[in-house]
Amino acid sequence: MEQLRVGFIGTGRIADMHYEGYRDNPRARLYAVCDTNPELVGRRVSEWNAEKSYGDFRELLEDPEIDAVEIITPHHLHAEMSIASLKAGKHVSVQKPIALNIKQANSIVAASIRTDKIFRVIENYRFSPPFVRAKKMIRNGEIGEPLSIRIKSLTGHIRYGWDIPNNAQDWRSDVERSGEGSILFDHGQHIWSIARYFMGDVESTFSYIGQQKVDGHHELPPGATLDNPAMVTWKYKGGGRYGSWETVYADDLVIRSQYYPIYVTVEITGTKGILWVNNFIGQKLDRAPLEMYRDGEMTRFTDVDIDYATSFSEAVHDFHDAIEHNRPTDLTGPEAREVLRFALAALLSGREGREVRIDEITD
């Protein structure tokens, strides 16, 4: 197969992670970049050795040399750009979430069905080595039948993580462009995806969602209101299996990271044992990345790559492999729509103070 020529639509902060999948990649190269900020485009061309640059995504889509695109833009642009890219005959990978609402997601899925091109939403958590290994261990019966999953996110002050441009904070604080809730809607897309990744379809959810003025959150300007703290619980289809997610942001919390100042830990309890994935995103502490308790003994797995960038690199490579072998890739459009539905159900539960069935969330 000839080397894929890929265009980036959007070259902001998180695009650095996407580029990791193109660094020294024999199967694909970053051929073109597009952004409405000409200064940023110029810098990215130099940094990434891209051959072409554009200021309008429509012009990029008209380039016949481009085989595929990565859409790395604010959430409200995902539907328009995804559909236009599919119509232009490009394979499409779009940053999470798939869209702002189910109507938009349905339009994207319909457009993807009408073409022979690959469409997926990039979900890097599913390609993080500790999560991948934990999933394999569960599949192999290491902890028996999974009964529950407990996820916890801790977010610290922005000064302990990487620099975030001010314009990124501006759009993320706008509900019309970013969706409702920086934590539950945006970061939550990762959580809802992982909840499904390990234990399948969800039937209903119940949420408690706080409201807090923030000072140093990495995605919001000072004085913005954050959906924090929050506690979300859910019930899986089939009965007898449950999940929960506790998320907390604290201005004075020290979480050192070369990326986002966030720790994400996951505990999965099965009929024979327990698995823990520890310290994801933030720098490694004194716990192993992956631990298992079974038969009265604790086993610690330290030979696991925990670099956040690896999860993106592996996700990008999966996109290229799917194109090469014409197979579905994780996260497909239909499942990404269900992840979005889960997020919207959790938000509705918090607003109305009741249990919400996932299938209540429609167009």
Tell me what the structure shows.
It is a single chain. With 363 residues, this protein is of the alpha/beta class. The chain has 11 helices and 17 strands. The chain has helices spanning 15-19, 38-48, 57-61, 78-87, 102-113, 129-139, 166-172, 175-178, 182-199, 308-325, 333-352, and strands at residues 4-9, 28-34, 52-54, 68-71, 91-95, 119-122, 146-155, 202-209, 212-213, 225-226, 230-236, 242-249, 262-270, 273-281, 290-294, 297-301, 356-357. The strands form 3 sheets. Strands 16-15-14-13-7-12-11-8-17 form a 9-stranded mixed beta sheet. Strands 3-2-1-4-5-6 form a 6-stranded parallel beta sheet, with helices on both faces. It starts with a strand and ends in a 6-residue tail after the last strand. The mean pLDDT is 94.
The number of distinct helices, counting runs of at least 4 residues, comes to 11
Strand content: 25-35%
Q: Catalogue the unreliable spans.
A: none
Average pLDDT reading: 94
What labels describe this entry?
single chain, 363 residues, alpha/beta, nine-stranded mixed beta sheet, six-stranded parallel beta sheet, 11 helices, 26% strand
